[in-house]
Design goal:
single chain; mainly beta; Jelly Rolls; four-stranded antiparallel beta sheet; 1 helix; 49% strand; elongated
Amino acid sequence: MNRRLVGVLLVVLLSGGLACEDTPAEPTSSEPETPTSVTEAFSSTVLKGSATSRSFVTTESGMITIVLTSLSQDTALVGLALGLSDEVTGVCTRTYAIVTQLYSARALSATADKGRYCVVVYDVGDFTGSVTFTVSVTHF
C-alpha cells in the first residue's frame, strides 16, 4: 500500500510541478499602423454651364484634399466640390465646395470617415466653351 500511495503522490507532484513550469506568454504590444495616403488624379472635360464628377473610395478615416492641377482655360474660375457618392445610383451629393483658379493654389480639404466619396468640377459661369481639367485627390 505504501508503494501505491507513493506512486499516486509522485504522479500528483509531477503533474503539479509541470503545471507550475508553464510561464504565461508575454503580452505583445502592437502599435497601430499609420494609414498610408493615396493620391489619385482625375482628368476629364466640363462643358460650359455643367459639371463632371468622379467617385473614389477611402479605406480609412482621415483628411481628403482636392487640388486643381490643370485647366485648359487657365484664368477661369472653377468650382470644386467634395460629396458623398451613392453606390447604387451613382448620384454625387455635394457636401463641401470652393471656387478657385488654377494658379491660386487653393485646395478643398475635409476630414471624412472611410466610405464612398466623389469630386465634382463645375462651371461657375466663367467657361467660354468646354474645358479640360485634372484634379488631384489625396485620401486614406
